[in-house]
């Protein structure tokens, strides 16, 4: 592996795993008011397209990174909808 | 441009621009409590590495997408630190 490839893999690891603390933060506090519904709607659609792109070009790292990111982005989106609804009651 | 390339560009456009509504949401409400400091720290570091990767491989789309994303990710990170500090006073 070249140094450039290593930087690319480390970049992918960081941007993918960064959504884990965000999902856990919302899960623990049951507060998602500062989370933007627009962001996670557009972001999830974008990540789904990245996954389609990875499948079409046959790139395992792109597929893997985007499956993981899509799982956490959709979890955050669903918690946002659920916890905001609970607060309005 | 092939259909696959078009999907890739649309994916990049969506995941990049999705951070704009999140930054505006925090800016308007001055509430960043549900935002994870861990997420935006790790995410910003990851995007900076993606930018370095783009520079090293000479990829204009990777550089451009990550300059824009880094700007918004750092804005969200700085607002998180600032507004949380204001609330603790």
Please tell me about this protein's structure:
The structure is a homodimer of 89-residue chains. The first copy, chain A, has 89 residues and is an all-alpha fold. Chain A has a single domain (3-88), classed as Up-down Bundle (Monooxygenase), CATH 1.20.1280.290. In chain A, 85% of the residues lie in helices and 0% in strands. Chain A has helices spanning 3-17, 19-29, 37-57, 60-88. In chain A, helix 1 (3-17) runs parallel beside helix 4, helix 2 (19-29) packs parallel to helix 4 (60-88) and helix 3 (37-57) runs antiparallel to helix 4 (60-88). Chains A and B meet through helix 1, helix 2 and helix 3 of A and helix 1, helix 2 and helix 3 of B.
Q: Total domains of chain A, how many?
A: 1
Q: Multimeric state of these chains? A: homodimer
Query: What is the strand tally of chain A?
Result: 0
In the CATH hierarchy, the third-tier topology of chain A is known as Monooxygenase
User: Largest interface, by Cβ-Cβ below 8 angstroms: which chains and how many residues each?
Assistant: A-B, 40 and 40 residues
Write the element-wise H/E pattern of chain A from the N-terminal end onward: HHHH
What general form of chain A does the structure show?
elongated
Strand content of chain A: under 5%
Helix percentage range of chain A: over 70%
Q: Mind telling me the C-alpha Rg of chain A?
A: 15 Å
- Corresponding CATH architecture of chain A: Up-down Bundle
Task: Label the structural class of chain A.
Answer: mainly alpha
């Amino acid at each position: 592996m070249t140094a450039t490839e290593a930087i690319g893999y480390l970049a992918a690891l960081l941007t993918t795993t960064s959504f884990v603390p965000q999902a856990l933060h919302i899960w623990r506090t049951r507060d998602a008011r500062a989370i933007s519904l627009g962001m996670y709607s557009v972001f999830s659609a974008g990540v789904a397209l990245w996954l389609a792109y990875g499948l079409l070009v046959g790139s395992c790292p792109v597929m893997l990174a985007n499956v993981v990111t899509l799982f956490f982005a959709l979890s955050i989106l669903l918690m946002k909808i659920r916890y905001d609804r609970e607060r309005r009651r």
